[in-house]
């Protein structure tokens, strides 16, 4: 079997997605997600102009050799654009291999380690009471794990409550970056009140998660982690930008609140020290950004040595293709933690028909051969790319801050 064609399909059924389709000379094809929110066309060019010519004529079964060829052979290694392109190709090749073997991807990885995959959904509100109600609605839908974000008094909408929060209606981003305003001091005072109220209303059984979205310093994160300990969060996510991995030592010295990190990581090197020193509890790497199935398997096996569990990133900008791939990995991986699943719009489900099914607080990848996700190219072509950016964030004095 040889690779005959490599197509890159960009569509925007509510938000932009980059999908690669690899077609073999025996008629089998596989698809992969290469979406990098706000920089999608960079991945399109990387795939079309630099990767596709290297794949034509190759044996699609040589997944590892192609991965190494695209990683080491590029000379310029790592980074979100390069790794999203490699991820998309890798996902498509595993899709082909599992279809050729006539089995669902999770079987090819080693079979199911659990009956179903626990997910967490998103709930938010501008006020604590709105957020509490939103959590209640998700709990009533059967969710057992819910990420909760809340507006901060004195600030306009912040991450997770502003324009980005309306992910379930698509359009998380805008044609120019929306500017948010941030105050760490106001945030630090307010978040413990949110979780005190949530525990009062819903008790201790519900898994509650919170995403700080890279906005604190290590000592501030240590303080917040301590303040949240009485509310026993499932995790505190992305408390501090993680370029300085050893910075997380300071947080670990002060709090037992579990830490989740890594949705922006694109290789194992981004998390090596964090994992070796057990500075985190969940690794958030996901199939579309961390090297596909091949890259993720390597990261997750390394994590398992250090008691770290998986928690694939899975908001709407992770396309249903990557969500399907994640679900197979989630069903197989022994050190599974949880899968983020903020949901998709009906149109996105139509553009990307899939065998994965969500029931309440769980998903299952299904039994279709491959990763079980396809793309309706005709429908996708009716929703062309529209330039869009993630928001940016500034402190009240105008300082550009982490979004
Ligand atoms: C999450 C993430 C998202 C990101 C988005 C950026 O935990 O789901 O933080 O909300 O903001 O994926 O593209
Ligand atoms: Mg996050």
From TrEMBL:
The keyword Cell membrane is assigned to this record: no
SMART domains: MR_MLE (SM00922)
Pfam families: MR_MLE_C (PF13378), MR_MLE_N (PF02746)
Entry keywords, A to Z: Lyase
Keyword Lyase included in the entry's annotation: yes
Origin superkingdom: Bacteria
EC number(s) per entry: 4.2.1.8
SUPFAM superfamilies membership: Enolase C-terminal domain-like, Enolase N-terminal domain-like
UniProt domain Mandelate racemase/muconate lactonizing enzyme C-terminal: residue ranges: 128-258
Gene Ontology MF annotations: mannonate dehydratase activity
Matching Gene3D superfamilies: Enolase-like C-terminal domain, Enolase-like, N-terminal domain
Xref: PANTHER family: D-GALACTONATE DEHYDRATASE-RELATED, STARVATION-SENSING PROTEIN RSPA
UniProt record similarity statement: Belongs to the mandelate racemase/muconate lactonizing enzyme family. GalD subfamily.
Protein name, per record: Mannonate dehydratase
Source organism per UniProt: Inquilinus ginsengisoli
Organism lineage: Bacteria, Pseudomonadati, Pseudomonadota, Alphaproteobacteria, Rhodospirillales
């Amino acid at each position: 079997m040889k690779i005959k064609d490599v197509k890159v399909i960009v569509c925007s059924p509510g938000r932009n997605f980059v999908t690669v389709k690899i077609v073999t000379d025996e008629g089998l094809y596989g698809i992969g997600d290469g979406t990098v929110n706000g920089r999608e066309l960079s991945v399109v060019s990387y795939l079309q102009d630099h990767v596709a010519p290297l794949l034509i004529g190759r044996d699609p079964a040589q997944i590892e050799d192609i991965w190494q060829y695209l990683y080491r052979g590029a000379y310029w290694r790592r980074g979100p654009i390069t790794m999203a392109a490699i991820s998309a190709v890798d996902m498509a090749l595993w899709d082909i291999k599992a279809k050729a073997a006539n089995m669902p991807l999770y079987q090819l990885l080693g079979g199911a380690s659990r009956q179903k995959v626990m997910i967490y959904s998103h709930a938010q509100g501008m006020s604590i009471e709105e957020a509490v109600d939103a959590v209640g609605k998700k709990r009533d839908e059967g969710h057992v794990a819910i990420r909760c974000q809340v507006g901060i008094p004195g600030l306009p909408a912040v991450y997770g409550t502003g324009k980005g929060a309306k992910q379930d209606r698509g359009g998380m981003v805008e044609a120019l970056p929306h500017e948010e305003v941030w105050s760490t001091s106001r945030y630090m005072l307010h978040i413990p009140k949110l979780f005190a109220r949530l525990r009062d209303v819903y008790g201790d059984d519900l898994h509650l998660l919170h995403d700080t979205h890279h906005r604190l310093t290590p000592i501030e994160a240590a303080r917040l982690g301590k303040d949240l300990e009485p509310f026993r969060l499932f995790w505190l996510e992305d408390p501090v930008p993680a370029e300085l991995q050893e910075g997380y030592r300071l947080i670990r010295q002060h709090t037992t609140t579990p830490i989740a990190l890594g949705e922006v990581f694109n290789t194992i090197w981004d998390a090596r020290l964090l994992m070796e020193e057990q500075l985190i509890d969940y690794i958030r790497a996901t199939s579309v950004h961390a090297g596909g199935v091949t890259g993720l398997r390597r990261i997750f096996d390394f994590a398992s040595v250090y008691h770290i569990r998986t928690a694939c990133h899975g908001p709407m900008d992770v396309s249903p293709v990557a969500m399907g791939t994640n679900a197979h990995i989630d069903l197989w991986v022994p050190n599974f933690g949880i899968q983020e699943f903020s949901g998709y719009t009906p149109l996105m489900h139509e553009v990307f028909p899939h065998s994965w099914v969500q029931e309440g607080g769980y998903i299952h990848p299904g039994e279709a051969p491959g990763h079980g996700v396809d793309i309706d190219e005709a429908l996708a072509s009716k929703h062309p790319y529209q330039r869009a950016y993630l928001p940016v964030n500034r402190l009240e004095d105008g300082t550009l801050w982490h979004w």
